[in-house]
Design a protein that fits this description.
The chain is α/β, with parallel strands linked by helices. Helix content is about 45%, strand content about 15%. Strands 1, 2, 3, 4, 5, 6, 7, 8, 9, 10 and 11 form an eleven-stranded mixed β-sheet that branches. The relative contact order is 0.17.
């Protein structure tokens, strides 16, 4: 065989190998292009409170929507943990394609770890998909006469609230308590007096007997007869009623608007090749159908048109404010939960350096 012929064959083989390599790369880049009739699996990592909203309304609704639109079947793998614990699990290797968490700070933690690479807050409503408020679940007939935050410091009261080291709900509860004090809604606490507000939080936590990992566990303990009241999400109480539980809830005069975010986790959707369907699912969370699904299980919709339709289900709040009053989550996390934060110092004084 001549040298020229050998070179031609070698060059041709190399070109074919290169072409094959390019084809493989191109196919890998289109890995999320599933054919009609194929199944695709999405992994949802959520906080515990909206388990019923997702499992019974929103996920089945999206499955029907996507099947009708594309002919594909979507399967969901669902994980529900306390919000802080869930965000740490995702960072630690739990490969959730979508996260639906309690608060912005928990999504930001995932973004800071490099797993979310886009501006997730550029989505509708700043990336928030549902709302709620902080309330008190009390025994039927409200035998302890709980009416407002000031009552939670009454001697002998047994209060339940989760642990802010793992629970987003606990962080909302403490922020609500602290903000209400700063806004002048606590008897005997001067308005805009951080020291007096911190002292009030300490008096309340002297009555806290159990700090569960998440809001759902805290309410479940309350339903089993533990405690006089539970500081919790409004929707936890409404879900309890739906399940046949008999207790009441009290809305304090001043409380915080709970805003719950959701986001696509870029690293994992790209690894799994499911970006197209993951983005579609995230968009679906702001649809009228999904917003009604949240409302069906006690969450307040972010969609104003849906909110008008269901507004009569929810009692009004005298003084409803957002985390922006406390400087937003970035500032609040440090000022309240940081090493020298309001809550951290209070906890050390009550329990030592645990």
């Amino acid at each position: 065989m001549s040298g020229e012929m050998c070179n031609w064959k070698r060059n041709t083989a190399a070109a074919l190998m290169l072409l094959g390599f390019v084809s493989v790369v191109a196919m890998a880049g289109c890995g999320d292009r599933k054919r009609p009739g194929e199944e695709v699996t999405l992994v949802l990592g959520a906080y515990t409170t909206p388990r019923e909203a997702y499992g019974r309304a929103i996920l089945p609704g999206f499955q029907r929507h996507w099947q009708q639109k594309t002919g594909q079947t979507v399967r969901f793998r669902e994980s529900y943990l306390a919000s802080g614990a869930q965000s740490r699990a995702v960072i630690g290797g739990f490969e959730a394609d979508i996260v639906a968490l309690s608060l912005e700070a928990d999504v930001e933690r995932i973004a800071a770890a490099g797993l979310i690479r886009h501006d997730w807050k550029s989505r509708p409503h700043g990336g928030m998909v549902s709302n709620s408020i902080v309330v008190f679940a009390v025994r039927s007939g409200n035998p302890r006469g709980i009416k407002d935050w000031s009552d939670l410091a009454s001697p002998g009261l047994n209060v339940l609230t989760p642990d802010p080291r793992t629970s987003g709900g606990a962080m909302w509860n403490i922020c609500a308590m602290y903000g209400a004090a700063l806004r002048g809604f606590i008897s005997g606490v001067p308005k805009e007096d951080p020291q007096a507000a911190a002292a009030f939080i300490k008096r309340v936590f002297q009555n806290v007997s159990i700090m569960d990992k998440g809001a759902r566990e805290s309410v479940t303990n309350f339903e089993r007869g533990v405690g006089d009241l539970a500081i919790t999400y409004e929707n936890e109480v409404l879900v309890g009623w739906k399940a046949g539980q008999i207790y009441e809830y009290v809305i304090p005069r001043s409380t915080i608007l709970i805003q719950n975010p959701a986001a696509v986790v870029d690293s994992y959707v790209d690894k799994h090749g499911v970006r197209e369907v993951a983005e579609a699912f995230l968009a679906y969370l702001w649809s009228s159908d999904a917003q009604h699904g949240y409302a069906q299980f006690g969450l307040r919709p972010v969609d104003s048109e849906v909110d008008i339709a269901v507004r009569n289900r929810y009692p009004p709040v005298e003084d409803l404010w957002s985390i922006d009053y406390l400087g937003g989550w970035q500032e609040a996390v440090g000022a309240i939960f940081g090493p020298e934060g309001v809550y951290t110092r209070m906890y050390r004084e009550l329990h030592g350096a645990k």
